[in-house]
Amino acid sequence: MRLTLVYGVLFLLFGTGLVGITYAFVVHSTSALVSEGQNDLIAAAGSAPRGGRRLLEIPEGLTAEQVRAQAESLRTQATRRHEGELRSLLTQSAIALAILSVVSVVLGWIAAGRVLRPLRTITRSARRISATSLHERLALGGPDDELKELGDTFDDLLGRLEASFTAQRQFIANASHELRSPLTRQRTVVQVALTDPDAPAERLRAVCERVLVANEQQERLIEALLTLACGETGVDHHEVFDLAEITGRVLHTHRLEAYRQKICMDAVLLPAPASGSPHLVERLVTNLVDNAVRYNVPSGTVHVSTGKVGGHATLAVINTGPVVLETEIERLFQPFQRAGTARVGQDGGLGLGLSIVKAIATTHGARLDIRPQPQGGLHATVTFDSVAL
Question: Of 81, 102, 128, which closes a domain?
């Protein structure tokens, strides 16, 4: 209705303007002709010819005064007729404008309905689609205009929501399984111990140690899940930190583990100032270095470097290890996924390392690039926006 009123009012305004301009042009042109004819009549009644001859021959038997009176009468008649024709023109134009205004309202209603039809389709679909029907799409046809672009944008939004809901359901299922496994082991160990009322103290002590190990695994998993949630939530307060300093602390805590596994670890740490949450960034570096050490080969290497590349703070972690296919990289970013193993591994890892790395990098606006090396292992690079210390 509003669009129809807008169309009708705009047509009425432009139509009124067109009639006004046309009326002004007609008045101007016809008034000049009428004035010229009146001057000819007056000149014809005079004694002096115009251009060497009279414009109007004086009938015989009429005096000059009678001719002038007749000319004046003709001029008055011509003026009245001219005014009448102008009024008739104005009236007919107003009637035509009124008729066309009604027609424009009808056509405006039809045009507005056709224009708003895709919007109604989007509205109905938005009301109908829920979390259980995110697979539906609008798939608007027609020309590649703004409305089709809006429909395509809505379809893209539904696609992202569907992927997010699917990942969330999968994550909840995996997290439930990971949390249930240690609880099941604890309950089984305790029940077995309780079935033997004469169990020696050494056996009960071993049971308690196994329960503590399972409890430690649960604590690590819960801490990792909390870190993942914090990384996906965002950073409320940004602090300036040096990526080289954080990386140095992380490497210091991992050197003993690398020595035990006979892995050669070297580092080139150049100043790399960045902004964000130092705690989350330390977790990011820890997970990358931990993965590089944990998923390596005997007598392997881990090379870590920091610095400024193209004006951006950059962290690079390169390690040897088993060969990883290019197609597996994207899967490794999903929670509880490991390369070349089942969903639940026996290497002590939780399968959340790279998921946390990706979440922290995303919330800091950093670019994460992980690619496999031909001879085995991974090459991970994280690029932050650099700031001045």
Answer: 128
